[in-house]
Protein 1
Amino acid sequence: MAVVEEDAPPAAAASASDPAAGSSDNEITVEEASFVHTEPPQDGSAPPVVSSDMEVLHDKVKKQVIKEGHGKRPLKFATCFVHYRAWVQGSSHKFEDTWQEQHPIELVLGKEKKEMSGLGIGVGNMRSGERALLHVGWELGYGKEGSFSFPNVPPMADLVYEVELIGFDDVKEGKARSDMTVEERIAAADRRKIEGNEYFKEKKLEEAMQQYEMAIAYMGDDFMFQLFGKYRDMALAVKNPCHLNMAACLIKLNRFDEAIVQCSIVLSEDESNVKALFRRGKAKSELGQTESAREDFLKAKKYSPEDKEILRELRLLAEQDKALYQKQKELYKGLFGPRPEVKPKKANFLVVFWQWLVSLIRYLVRMFKRKNE
């Protein structure tokens, strides 16, 4: 069963077949890119306590590094993908959390909304993979009025952000995803997928996942919801392989729960996807979820009955079941031991004598009665 999807770029195919698909790969030139896989912090109920030095980025923006990043900083008009949590300074009122929503936001530096200008300054001074605490004055936040969308952000509220720069694209035009055509977004995602495949072949799994996750970011739920017909098929032809290849990387890294999530996303769109069923079954098997894994493998076998890897996994599960049964049998045998033999009890002498005496008396009584008759 192949691990890496090698589909042809669907956007290029669309351009050839559809006269309206005038945008090609050449319309967005990626000059430089950097991206790292990220995991959410464990506790987000309050801003983290950070002991690192306070760096002044602007009169109203200060930064404390939580985790160092790598590479260069994004340029102006770079399209940045970030996760963040936001609080009102001096309070525990968290009003936004993209980790909880499981969707990074897109920020084009120099083109961000007014209320996010302080956040933009902070992100522009971060490196890929860096996590930091940003202190933003109200003038570069929600201003004198506060926030209508977030009622717990009062007027003139200073803000605290816990931010992670997942990755960025330095592009000439500084286009946000929302400004791209369907073909442009699919083409950008497809380029990421191809780069991820190259990293995978080189066994650079973390780097491969970075590219796959960036590709998936271009295919967000809001975007997919708007697509129908051939455009949805084109997008899924890029998105689903990225999820599947993410799952393959995660399995190799023993991150089985995350692999299950990636496969389940694909199966929500295509319940008969053999690779998704197989890889989810593999991850479940590694977690000891034997029955659920067997169910996935049997479904995969239904759609691909001759697949040798699927048959092999089913045989392994059967052998595991047999070994477990034998182990349990030996365990119970040792626990309770062999059943004891029933030995005949020795007769009590007094009981035997008493029984003989009673029988003798009965015999004599019968003889006496017969004689009298």
Protein 2
Amino acid sequence: MDETSLEFDMVGIDAAIANAFRRILLAEVPTMAVEKVLIYNNTSIIQDEILAHRLGLIPIKADPRLFEYRNAGDEEGTEIDTIQLQLKIKCTRNPRATKDSADPRELYLNHMVYSKDMKWAPIGNQADVFADANIGPVHGDILLAQLRPGQELDIVMHCVKGIGQDHAKFSPVATASYRLLPEITLMETVEGEKAERLKRCFSPGVIEVENHGGKVVAKVVNSRLDTCSREVLRHDDLKNAVKLARVRDHFIFSVESTGILAPDVLVTEAIKVLMTKCQRFLNELDSTEME
């Protein structure tokens, strides 16, 4: 595991359960994202709709567990269900630019609008409650628009809690996938030049050659690193020497977070969502039996 990605094994379960975790991670773990964009001034060349769409897709670093879902009919948000962000920026000429310069970075000030220009505007008591939360975009270097002198943006954004099932912008992961653990078995002893060729058929680290009493012999070292290519089947003298299979109940999960929550927290939240679904199902069964 590192800051944004996590790889773990899930062993001894059915494929349906593994897929349930994958789908919950993609579509049912909630996050905060820009839902309403109030554009007071936009004199850039980007249309309002395109700009609003770009703003909506920016990951917002805010813990969704600390907020409630916003009611459908609410026009104005409250401190428990809405985060307000502001983007107010104007492009001007740089008075210190040299006369013969043609570089926009030198000629203009604020000509590149980045996500770091989106500033948090606390509602109600949020400034005290989330004083240490550092609410704002996860990444500050996402380019939103390019301006020229005289052009400006004056925008207010409302971020609400939602799930990826409603819109992809709420999905907390960049990718969530799994694969079955490869299983490679040597059916016979492979020696000499054949062993070297066999090693080259697989990803680095899967098969190594060892020296046994002057003979070079192939050995399976780490089948986990195999990418399940079928290169070995192209060699007539090798294809019967190896058995390629997969362990049916051993899943290798890869979870890559967008940075809103740590990947291990996302997996924990996905487990909680599945437990809630199971409990709801059991409760429904109990109530049906009583009727």
